[in-house]
């Protein structure tokens, strides 16, 4: 007999069940519609339904097979067990609902063979999900990782999932015990449990069955209605969030329509409703797993920014005014709702401290660690845009860099006319595009974009000469822009000065297009990222290579040979804007491999797990006053590796690690990969790294 065939206080069970079911669905539909409205209350447009096949592939890889979860095998295992439980048992829940509504319809509602296979799977999954819950509880309360904070919510939901499994099993077992001969070979676990109940009085079995059946379904409905209010909302939003993830270059920031923004006198994000809908979906989706926090260099060095904390804070800011925002946006709100919104705790300086916003190096370690496709650097930069462009509030050191970029086209504020002074020490001439005639320009294969550090910073100038020598040796016909080159604007953009960035970008694109430039090589990953991924928004579409990519190609083609031995050991520090932002990991290693006698030892944190040097996101120009300096933390890891040298492929990393070496009196000397390669050229007088 189905529980809904009974009557309860005179109310037929079917009617009571229908009331509970439709009441729960109605309550959930109401909450979900409010959440949907909260998602779509405004903010800049953000199109995320292009490239459906690529989105689907990512959904399978990251969402269904949970690729990133397996980076931590223990967590991967219990997530997979619980996730598969949800999938399999949703069919079970549907069958129980149908049973409740149509008790006389009988089962199964699938063809017999399929239903039997399903019952077997369901029985196994009931146990594996329960095991997954125990493993998850073990991770939270017994072998807890630092990234997981004690949380009532997490423990409660895990216990609720365990409760669902237990009630389902018990109801099934009691039913088998009540109806001997009914036990099915397709439900071996339930049948085995029912044998333990064999001596139990029928009345007790009925009570177990009825209570477990009702409790199971009420818990399902309660769970559904609790989800939108808890971090477990990700159960519903994670898959859509992964499907709608950012697909363009990871290092590309969104464009701001400066004219429109100036007209509206509104730049960046000051309030939660200024975020895009996708940024709000990120907030709904954060699982609070802390994978982002455990790798964030600012958290590791004791600064106030932790990406998980940031995500929780912006979500709290959103949820604290959710009702008023939805009411006002849908014109249902009264004056009081509007007043409450005006008087709310501010997002910047209230929910999120300004120090937190300025601490980020935009290294994207957090984004690459996040299993549900959440991004942070876009949100941080949007908030910086508001501070810089609307409030003129930013760390005072940034002003010097802004002035330099604005007046001289470089953050060091050195004369623009000295930009090609680094070429003077070369024993060959590098042609300057502007000084060539049309036919000479047509012969140029690639433009060497030198960058500000490569033009003005002492060590950077040496690296520029090294790359020039390697290109010269390989017979590459290249030229430079000389004093017509100006800062690419990366630091300005990441520090929130979008206006200055766009001015520089437009000027550079105009120059490059004016000379018909098609191919560019640069040794600065920040220039590389901006020219490659951000200049297309300004009409500049170029094939951009990092110096190590072109040199690796010249080596592979035999156009450059490295013959001078360098009998040293070396580790390699990955630059965030080359690696995580642009997926270039092999080229610098291939160049190092080609140097005779050099032995590469990988650092424990390398490749996609490389730790930032602390200079990205414009932090190169800001003081670092809180906690350990990031460059020193990274340099300590490098020293630990015990190699003679550390290779870099970014002028900012070179400065940061060089400073750390001096400050810490370290032994490991940083060298640019290309400096070492140039030193190994046959014509070179001797190794530089002695
Ligand atoms: S981008 Fe880097 S510094 Fe910024 S929050 Fe993420 S991990 Fe931390
Ligand atoms: S943002 Fe992503 S990695 Fe960070 S806590 Fe949330 S889900 Fe985990």
What's this entry about, in short?
The protein is about 55% helix and about 5% strand.
Highlighted features:
690 residues; mainly alpha; 30 helices; elongated; binds iron/sulfur cluster
Can you walk me through this structure?
- The chain starts with 6 loop residues before the first strand and ends in an 11-residue tail after the last helix.
- With 690 residues, it is mainly alpha-helical.
- The strands form three sheets. Strands 4-3-5-6 form a four-stranded parallel β-sheet, with helices on both faces.
- Helix 1 packs parallel to helix 7.
- It has 30 helices and ten strands.
- Bound molecules: iron/sulfur cluster (SF4) (2 copies).
- One iron/sulfur cluster is lined by residues 296-298, 305, 307, 360-366, 376-377.
Strands of the biggest beta sheet: in what spatial order?
Answer: 4-3-5-6
Q: Gyration radius, to the nearest Å?
A: 31 Å
* Average pLDDT number: 93
Strand content: under 5%
Largest sheet: 4 strands, parallel
Please state the oligomeric state of the protein chains shown: single chain
**Cα distance, first to last residue?**
87 Å
- Low-confidence stretches at least 5 residues in length (pLDDT < 50)? 686-690
Describe the secondary structure blueprint for this structure.
Blueprint: E1 7-8, E2 11-12, H1 13-39, H2 52-64, H3 73-101, H4 112-141, H5 152-178, H6 188-196, H7 202-226, H8 234-243, H9 258-264, H10 277-285, H11 291-295, H12 297-300, H13 307-320, H14 322-329, H15 335-342, H16 354-359, H17 365-369, H18 377-390, H19 396-407, H20 438-443, E3 446-449, H21 451-456, H22 458-473, E4 478-479, H23 490-494, H24 498-514, E5 519-522, H25 525-534, E6 543-546, H26 547-556, E7 569-572, H27 586-593, E8 599-600, H28 630-641, E9 645-648, H29 651-664, E10 669-672, H30 673-679
Helix pairs in contact: 1-7, 1-14, 2-8, 3-4, 4-5, 5-6, 5-7, 8-10, 10-13, 14-15, 22-30, 26-27, 27-30, 28-29
The structure holds iron/sulfur cluster (SF4) (2 copies).
